[in-house]
Amino acid sequence: MLLTATVLTGCGSGIGTTADEAKDSVVAFVDSSTTALGDGWEVDSGPGLGKCDRVPGLGGISYVYIKYGPAGQDPVADVDTVEQLWKRQGVTTERYESGGSDPVRGVRGTGGPVGSVDFLASSEGYSIEGDSRCVAGDFDEITRDSQE
């Protein structure tokens, strides 16, 4: 069973960014992160459209993109690789680790080209979930247009 982490932070404000730019940015960011870890990654979901608040009372949209991949040989080194890549792109990071004999390790971040992102490394597999910046957009209109 593959574990998937939920990004706990909200999306960052993407003032001056279009919906298409937000979507493209989160896909490119997650894809470059998985490329740094090797082959075998698959899209789990997305990029999926969601609602967010750009500022209190001013709604917008964001995109969530999730990929999963096989567990690596050295999760500690893989977390370090991802964290360093993200820091070079302006993401503020925080590492985490569960307890137990087979801990789940990871790093989450905010800023840079994404609103938030989370990399989870467990013995059962890896996942990366990215949430784009929150940008101006009408969720209902975009959803309706994509169904036409």
Give the H and E element order. HEEHEEEEH
Strand order of the largest sheet: 1-2-6-5-4-3
Unreliable spans: 1-13
CA radius of gyration: 15 Å
* Anisotropy-based shape: elongated
Q: Tell me the distance between the termini.
A: 36 Å
Question: Would you report the number of β strands?
Answer: 6
Strand content: 35-45%
Largest sheet report? 6 strands, antiparallel
Share in helix? 25-40%
Number of helices: 3
Q: Whole-number average pLDDT?
A: 87
By secondary-structure content and strand pairing, the structural class works out as: alpha+beta
In short:
27% of the residues lie in helices and 38% in strands.
3D architecture notes:
The protein is α+β, with helices and mostly antiparallel strands. It has 3 helices and 6 strands, in the order H-E-E-H-E-E-E-E-H. Mean pLDDT is 87; it is low at 1-13.
Annotation keywords:
148 residues; alpha+beta; 6-stranded antiparallel sheet; 6 strands; 27% helix; 38% strand; disordered N terminus
Topology:
Elements: H1 19-35, E1 42-55, E2 58-69, H2 75-88, E3 91-97, E4 105-111, E5 114-122, E6 125-131, H3 139-147
Antiparallel strand pairs: 1-2, 2-6, 3-4, 4-5, 5-6
